[in-house]
Amino acid sequence: MLKLSPLAKTWIFDVDGTIVKHNGHKIDGHDTLLEGVKVFFDNLALEDKVILLTARKEHELEELKLFLKNNNIRYDYILSDMPVGERILVNDKKPSGLSTAYAVNKERDEALDIKYVVDKNL
Predict the structure, then answer these.
(1) Are 109 and 20 in contact (CB under 8 A)?
(2) Which three-class secondary structure state does DSSP give residue 31?
(3) DSSP string, 36-100
(4) How far apart are CA 106 and CA 29, in angstroms?
C-alpha cells in the first residue's frame, strides 16, 4: 500500500501489458482494457496528471487515442517510440522529507490493482 500526500500527482503508465492487453492491437486486431483500469482511472483526482508511455510508433497513436477516448481513459500526454528496456524515474525529495518518486512493477496483462491511501499529514 502506497502512502501518498494530498498534493496533486503525476501518474506515469506504460500502455501495453499495464493498462491494455500486451500486443492485443496486433494479436486480436484491437486493444482491450485490463481489469481494474477503468475503476482506477475513474478514481484519479482531476488535478492529477497522467502520462502514458509506449513503444508503439507514432503512426499507431491515432487508433490508441481513439480507443482511450471511447473507454473514457483520460491522459494528458502520450509519448511513443519509447525503448523497451527499463524505465527509470528520478525525482528529488521535498525538504520536508516527503518521498516524491515511486515505482510499481505489475505482472504483464494482470489486473491493475494499485492500492494507495492519501495521508493528509504528509
Answers:
(1) no
(2) coil
(3) THHHHHHTS-TT-EEEEE-SS-GGGHHHHHHHHHHTT---SEEE-S--SS------PPPTT----
(4) 24
Name the residue with cell 478514481: 43
The span from the CA of 45 to the CA of 105, in Å, is 22
Q: pLDDT tens digit string along 13-25?
A: 999 999 999 999 9
Enumerate domains of the chain plus CATH numbers. 2-118 (3.40.50)
- State the pLDDT confidence band at 32, using cuts at 50, 70 and 90: very high
Q: So what's the pLDDT on residue 122? A: 86
What are the tens digits of pLDDT across the range 37-88?
Answer: 999 999 999 999 999 999 999 999 999 999 999 999 999 999 999 999 999 9
Cell numbers 498534493 label which residue? Answer: 7
Q: Which of 102, 49, 58 is nearest to 77 (CA)?
A: 49
- Alpha-carbon gap, residue 62 to 45, rounded angstroms: 26
